[in-house]
Amino acid sequence: LARSPDSSMQSLMAPTLLLLAPAMAAAMTVAATGKATPLVPRVVPSPLPTVYVYDHCPFCVRVRLALGVKNVKHEVRFMANDDVETPTKLIGKKLAPIWVNGDEAPMPESLDIIAKIDSDPAFGTPGLIKPASGRTDLKAWQKEVQKPMRLTQRPRYVMSPLPEFMQADARRAFIKNHFVPIGDLDKPSWKELSEEEHDKFYAEAISMSDACIAELNAALLKLEDMIHCPQCVSEGGVSYDDIDTWSRLRSLTIIKGLNFPPKVRAYLDYFAEVGDVPLYDAMAC
Prior knowledge:
By secondary structure, this protein is mainly alpha-helical. It has helices at 7-17, 20-29, 58-69, 85-91, 110-117, 136-159, 168-177, 187-191, 195-207, 209-224, 240-250, 262-274; strands spanning 50-53, 75-78, 98-100, 107-108. It has a 4-stranded mixed β-sheet, with helices on both faces. A hairpin with a 6-residue loop joins strand 3 and strand 4. Helix 3 (58-69) packs parallel to helix 5 and helix 6 (136-159) crosses helix 9. The protein is globular, with a radius of gyration of 19 Å. The protein starts with 6 loop residues before the first helix and ends in an 11-residue tail after the last helix.
């Protein structure tokens, strides 16, 4: 973005990018402050498995969360958003997450990875993560917040010191492939726009923050009643409902001004701790 002639987007980016190092240190090395007890004993494979991810990607977070819930020590490698070579060498195309474990063939697709991890005794007792409940209310909630989430999150991702966006080319690659839903814009029409037009619409999305945040705050109040308890969104214990719901909900913590109701906040904090995946509160903007 630094090379774009659009001054409005540059003005949004500049103060944040000057603070990359301290913000990264604060947000990416400090875990949640709760005292959640691990659900199972620590598993330390040798050699350690590796997951290749983007930090902002909820599908990547699914795998990281599952590994944390199962208390499996692993390596996390953050790929730059414009890095095509690394994933292509591993699985033949640009995609994340990617699971690499010893001599096994690298594996994409978050749910396939989790199913493998949770069925293999090498990673602890199989079946710790219960099946999805099929709840339609959670899916409906996700659909309800999709537009305001895209309008608020996508510009903030590239304004924030996430590891996949440490260079301008990486930020540009994300913007090029992720439209903001303003007017009739969609994926095909977005690809026809210039960089300057992309930046203009991202800046416009930021200008819509107050209305979007109000909409999201109202939706979070609805979600409060859908969460069974801080330890599981659906009754019966940790399930694929949590793997999906929490991974998407985490992304909202990058938005300054959101009011998380008590049960939603406790749910976020619990899984940040037990799943060993930090939230974005320290870098919210």
